Records
---
Amino acid sequence: MSFFNTKIENLRGVGTQRAQLLQKELGIFTYGDLIQRYPFRYLDRTQFYNIVDLHDDLPYVQVKGILRGREVLGEGPKQRLVAKVADASGELELVWFKGLKWMQNIVKNHQEYIVFGKPTFFNGKAQMSHPELEEVTEAKAGQSFLQPVYNTTEKLKNYHRIDSKAIMRMVVDLLKIAAPHIQESLSPELVRHYALMSKADALQQIHFPQSTELLQAARFRLKFEELFYVQLKLLRQKTQRKVTLAGQIFKEVPSLVDFYKNHLTFDLTGAQKRVIHDIYKDFCSGKQMNRLLQGDVGSGKTIVAFISMLMAADNGAQSCLMAPTEILADQHYVGLKQYADQLGINLGKLTGSSRTSERRVLHEQLRSGEMHMLVGTHALLEDVVQFRNLGLTIMDEQHRFGVAQRSKLWQKNPDIIPHVLVMTATPIPRTLAMTLYGDLDVSVIDELPAGRKPIVTVHRYDTNRLKVFQFLRDQINLGRQVYIVYPLIEESETMDYKDLTDGYESVARAFPEFQISVVHGRMKAEEKDFEMQRFLKRETQIMVATTVIEVGVNVPNASVMVIESAERFGLSQLHQLRGRVGRGAEQSYCILMTGYKLSKDSRTRLETMVRTNNGFEIADIDLKLRGPGDLMGTQQSGVLDLLIADLAKDGRILTESRAAAQQLLDEDADLTKPENLNIRRHIESLPATAVNWSRIS
Ligand code: ADP
Ligand code: MG
């Protein structure tokens, strides 16, 4: 058994009771767990603030002063210990609400302290509650170093004295005995090439940095290693699959040339051309394609899908395009049918509402190969749907589909697995995509077609509703249509939000002269479709909806999007909703409605929406606000349980570590070369995790 698997209770001074607490509260079971519990910040013991310079906006800071007077004030739950600390510039009040008895015995009058905490102001007086205190002693006076601060819990701190300092002492003890057991986990070549600090030094310096430079180096080293092993695992899977799975070759493109020359009515954007080239290269490789295509709403993914399908058709293979809803499937069909007709290609449609007689014909045509392309919904997956030679499957808005559904599509060609293209408008930051979808190839359309008018986005308070409604009226009278979106109907009655029904009633009262559609999640699919169709055909002017309209719907004449209680939506969701407008020639608007009371994060989200239309910039900010674990579909992702790397900030390290992992696999796929011994040994020492690396939906 390795040293780092030793149970934490064996560490000097820990014992059974504290070991249990560490396990329960912090998940620290072994020496390895403790040594990898890196500090979340450091105290710079060289910097002190003058008390007079403190202000509200400062983060945690430290001051140095003499303690003057301490007394317990108040009764019962309001009881608190108050002390004052003074330096040459002024006085600071320290307050404790918990652990009074203990603190009372600790703080000494007339003692000089280093006080660390977050300054706040109360009646114009500087205050810190629950600061950390450290006595200034002769020995420590001249010292300059960064002191680690460890995460712990209120329970551990207040009832068991396991505060950051206590953890620090454990780490000191552990590092003393751990040194001979720390093995370098990267190859000498990687350490040299990326100028990495050794593992042993990095573990020492991350806990007790001797300077900020050494701390930087230690952090870089540990982040690099962490991301390197994540990427190595993902890339190995990808390589394995590429080796084992062959794909049909689609090299000839006569119809495509015809299409470009004679039928395509607009110029493809540079980004579209680049993506089509990526796909064509995959088609010529002889390996099965597994590609994720990311493109902001309105960036023109559908035409890329069609061109890919055309390449398949040119080489005698069938293809299908699967959409998550009937409305979307209809839209794709209508949009692509005209092109297919012009090119003499048979394009069919299959959805839940296709009639039995139609289906029978379609099934037959698919089996015979007469039908070249198929657009549809989940109905495509049914076992009765069989192809003569399915060569390409495309999934639109892929987060709606599960892994099981994708594998069903694969099985539609027993001879050779079809190429797979998944398309998503959920802009995932590149760093996150590389980790989450590390086993897929990723293409990005990062450019909108020329001539689009950027959507004008504004934030309005509920008190201005009358003005907003007047604006909607004016727009509708100009011939436009309007979406009004509400947060999902909540189970909780107590929440102070207008729900859809209230909203509908007030809209109906305000606009007696217009027709209104309603769509929400509790309606049956047919009812939803019926209402959507009415809106599409312009029989209704206003669509009141919950977020069900989020995905893909294209109503070019709808040019105004009102989002009610906009503070309740995440940034990415707001951006998705806004993407429903801005699809026609007219100037489009997005109006974000809120009350006056807004949190800081809500304000940031609203300001971001008003400032930019760029989906990737928005996704990056969203990632920073929420952290990666919160992003759609990634909650259960073991991939994101990172110890030190931060996907929102460490994009550059991620890119470098991925390149390093790729190069390693190119040179030594089985990791059998002696110079890669460290890496092989490290992988073998890792616990076999239950992480599902193939999860991509
Ligand atoms: P999304 O990426 O959101 O699925 P679509 O494929 O629906 O976007 O495209 C949105 C609109 O832009 C469609 O009407 C499409 O015909 C049009 N379009 C796509 N590419 C271009 C282009 N290069 N130039 C002009 N219009 C384009
Ligand atoms: Mg689309």
---
Amino acid sequence: MHPAHDQVRAIIWREDALELLDQRQLPGILAYRRLESAAEVAQAIRDMVVRGAPAIGIAAAYGVVLAARARYAESVDGWQALIAADLATLAAARPTAVNLFWALRRMEGVIAEQRSHPVERLLAEAQAIHAEDIAANQRMGKLGAALLTERGAVLTHCNTGSLATGGYGTALGVIRQGYAAGRIERVYADETRPWLQGARLTAWELVQDGIPVTLLADAAAAALMRQGGIRWVIVGADRIAANGDVANKIGTYHLAVAARYHRVRFMVVAPTATIDMSIASGADIPIEQRAAEELLTLGGQPVAAADAQAWNPSFDVTPATLVDALVTERGVALAPDAAKMARLMAGAA
Ligand code: MRU
């Protein structure tokens, strides 16, 4: 890990409550919100205070700790039955990132075996999920950076950095290590409409790290690839199916199509917590549809013709055939397919 890099933490457990950096206000305002109940955590996930697949899972795990504290105070004998409602509230926050359900399942395992005084044990589990995520990111950073054999520029989409994870980042972790190793000379970042995670968050993280970053409108990506110089597109994922299909921020799929056409390689970086072996292909991944207002307005101001409708899927699915490398903390699958995914996951704990 590079000490000058990766300073920000979006998720902090402090004095018996969860503090989330309000990512809706970045980069202008750096403010943490203090949350004391599972319902508040679910709302924060839905409202994009915290976002990014691993970060959503970690926040939800801490949400379970808050729920256990309240339910145990309510009923020492009945807390395990009562907490089911809180788990359901957290699970309903957002549908696509499987890390949310993965983290809740892990917390449920602890709930099932914990008869009394659950808070300390559940907090330890949430903190383990958090710490393991950072360690996985650092490992993936190494594995992904090793694939960057030719020095050049890379293109990324959305925000996959410290803000989207427990810390350090998935695709941005590879970019951090690739830059430190001298293999990346510049990062191009899609602005990522409509939430502008690229413009507001990725550019902010990279500027803080002193890594040269150039923003582009999402629609400019194919033209940029045509100019040459982009060696890799490097992105994260919200859910990866058993055949290697990848759901990620809307706009990822057209990057993959354009990358293949222009002979630019396409790398997906995600921990195994993002892999959902129960889903055969990307066709079965639930894709979140968000409110039309997110497209029809900008900064609260209307930008579209009154009465126009909007189609606003938050994610799309990139077929595995367009993925050159899938980097996980367990290893790399080149040109992933169902057999390689099964092998990768068979090695998983
Ligand atoms: O809607 P968001 O901001 O939660 O979407 C985030 C993404 O699509 C990221 O690329 C993905 O979660 C990977 S983050 C390490």
